[in-house]
Amino acid sequence: MFFLRVFNCGQPIVAVMLLLVLGGCADSRYYWQSLTGHWQLMQAARPVDDWLADPAVSHGLKQRLQLAQDIRQFAVSALHLPDNASYRRYADLQRRHVVWNVVAAPEFSLTLKTWCFPVAGCVGYRGYFAQEAAQNEADSLRTQGLEVSVYGVPAYSTLGWMNWLGGDPLLNTFITYPDGELARMVFHELAHQVLYVPDDTLFNESFATAVERLGSAIWLAQKATPAAQRDYALFDARRQQFRALARATRARLQEIYKENSALEPVHQAQAALKSEAMDDFRKAYAELKASWGGYSGYDPWVAQANNAALGAQAAYDELVPGFEALFVQQGRDWPRFYDAVKQLAKRPQEERVQQLQQWALQTTI
Prior knowledge:
α6 packs across α7 and α7 (201-223) packs across α12. By secondary structure, the chain is mainly alpha-helical. The strands form three sheets. A three-stranded mixed beta sheet has the order 1-2-8. Strands 6-3-7 form a three-stranded antiparallel beta sheet. The protein has a two-stranded antiparallel sheet with strand order 4-5. It contains 14 helices and eight strands. The chain starts with 12 loop residues before the first helix and ends with a helix. The longest helix is centred in the middle third of the chain and has 32 residues, at 226-257. The radius of gyration is 21 Å and the shape is globular.
C-alpha cells in the first residue's frame, strides 16, 4: 500500500504486487486500489516546465507553479532537504483531495487502531483513493463499536521510493494554498524522505511537522512578501489556538479514560464525563471562533470530532516541541539536526519519546 497521509508515505510497487499474490481477497482489493490510484496520479503528472511553457495554462497556475519551484529549491539550499525528482512535476486530479484517510479508536481511548504493511510497518490510518471506499471502510469499523473519522488528504509522500518514476508531484489539491502553507506542505513531505521509522507514526509526523514549522518560518522571513507574511501570521495564530484547545481536550479525555474497567457503572460515569468534555470543547471553540471574527475553517472538523479525530491530530502535535528543542541544541544547523534525529530514531520507541518530552521541558524556542 502507498502509506497515505494530512500530511502520508509509501512502499515500493514490488511489495504491493507481492501482497496481491499472497494476500486474501479483501487485502488484494485494497492493495490494488492503492497501486492503481497512485499509478493514475503518476500518469497525470507532467514536468513543471511543460506546464509553464503551455499557452493554454492560466497565468495564475503558472505563478503558483513557479512559486512552488522556488520553494522546492529553497528546501534544498537552505533546509538541506533531499534534492531529487519530487515536486518538480504537477498533476491536476480534478478533485479536492488526493486520498481519504480512515482512522478509528475505541469508545474510551484515544489510541488509534493500526494497520500493518511491509516496509512502512504499522500505521494509525488507512488511505483510499476513492471517498466511497473510505466511507465503506468507516461503516465497517463502526459496526465493530469503534469511533471513526474520515478526512480528505491534500498530499502524501512515497518516502522517495518513487523518485525513479518522477517522484511525488505537486497537485491541484494544494497548489493554491496560501504561500506559507504551500511552503509548509512541501517541507513536510520532503522531511519524510529524510527519515521514516517503521511502526511509529507519532515520531514520523511530529518530526515532519517540526521541519515544516521551522523551515516555513525561515522561508517566510527571507522570501515571502509582506502580505504573505501577514496572511500566514493570522492563519497560523488561529491554528495554534485551535490546536492548544484540542490538546487540552485530549488531556482531559485521557484522564477520564484512565479507569480501564469493564464494570458498567465505570463506563456509565466515563460516558457522562466524556460527553461533558466534548460539550465543553465545542463551547470553547465557539468562543474562539467568535474572537476570530467568525472564521469558520475548523467547523467541519469540530462537528465530527471524536476519539479517532483527536487521536489522529495528536500525531502531528505531541512531540513537535521536543524536535524544535533538539534543533536549537544542534545550533540550528540542519545537517546536524537530521543526524541527531537519526541517532535518536535508533533508540527504543519509549526511550526516544521520553527524551523528546524532556528536551521540550528544558528548552524554549
